[in-house]
Amino acid sequence: MQTQIRDAASADVGTIHEIYNYYVENCTCTFQIEPETLAERQAWFDARRPEHPVTIAEVQGTAVGWAALSTWNSRKGYARTVEASIYIHHDWHRRGIGRKLLQDLINRARELGHHVIIGGACTEQTASIALQESLGFQTVGQFREVGFKFGRWLDVVYLQLSLEPDESS
Ligand SMILES: CC(C)(COP(=O)(O)OP(=O)(O)OC[C@H]1O[C@@H](n2cnc3c(N)ncnc32)[C@H](O)[C@@H]1OP(=O)(O)O)[C@@H](O)C(=O)NCCC(=O)NCCS
């Protein structure tokens, strides 16, 4: 199976929106409760800057997943720290697509001069945590019961990947 990774275009916003909303309604991988509107996702896409890319994974011309590097904290001093998001269409799990998207995000983050990538995950999201760990992310902390979804309190683990060994650079 050939998976291509490319920059997302405005024409992909509908697919990004559909893939994401499935998880809003069915999964604790996002703590969003109400489905997003297409207009909200379009506004998100239109506001992206070059240092915060959005990418698409395609199999035989069909978009099956997306990923993004986003601002982690808007204070200027955090500018070189980014948060990674990855969502694979629920019918396309466990075919190596998530790893390809995350590896590509890591490469792009390096090229863009970012210093740290943060990944957050609900502790019950073992796939997300295992994927990140498989590419070198390390757990840096865990918050207890900071989210509430599907009638239960949820813990969140944060992982980080440091891109440059020299802390002063
Ligand atoms: C997490 C997610 C992105 C993984 O994508 P994927 O394409 O299914 O994962 P891959 O096939 O690339 O798997 C890569 C590695 O992730 C881990 N992994 C993936 N799915 C897993 C599962 N169900 N259980 C345990 N580990 C899993 C494994 O380490 C796997 O390596 P292996 O196949 O060599 O064992 C996907 O499940 C998803 O979209 N989940 C909902 C959204 C989400 O949680 N996003 C956050 C991701 S950072």
Polypeptide structure, described:
By secondary structure, the chain is an alpha+beta fold. It has a domain at 3-116: Gcn5-related N-acetyltransferase (GNAT) (Aminopeptidase, 3-Layer(aba) Sandwich), CATH 3.40.630. The protein is built from four helices and seven strands, in the order βααβββαβαββ. The protein has a seven-stranded mixed beta sheet with strand order 1-2-3-4-5-7-6, with helices on both faces. Strand 4 (81-88), helix 3 (97-111) and strand 5 form a beta-alpha-beta unit. The longest helix has 15 residues, at 97-111. It is globular. Residues 23, 29, 86-88, 93-99, 119, 125-128, 130-132, 134 line the site of coenzyme A (COA).
Question: Strand tally, please?
Answer: 7
Gyration radius (Cα, Å) is 16 Å
Helix content: 25-40%
Task: Report the bound ligands by name, code or SMILES.
Answer: coenzyme A
Strand order, largest beta sheet:
1-2-3-4-5-7-6
In the CATH scheme, what's the topology name of the domain at 3-116? Answer: Aminopeptidase
Known CATH architecture of the domain at 3-116: 3-Layer(aba) Sandwich
CATH first level of the domain at 3-116: which class? Alpha Beta
What would you call the quaternary organization?
single chain
Mean of all residue-level pLDDT scores: 96
Biggest sheet overview: 7 strands, mixed
Number of helices: 4
Assess the beta-strand content as a share of residues: 25-35%
Form type: globular
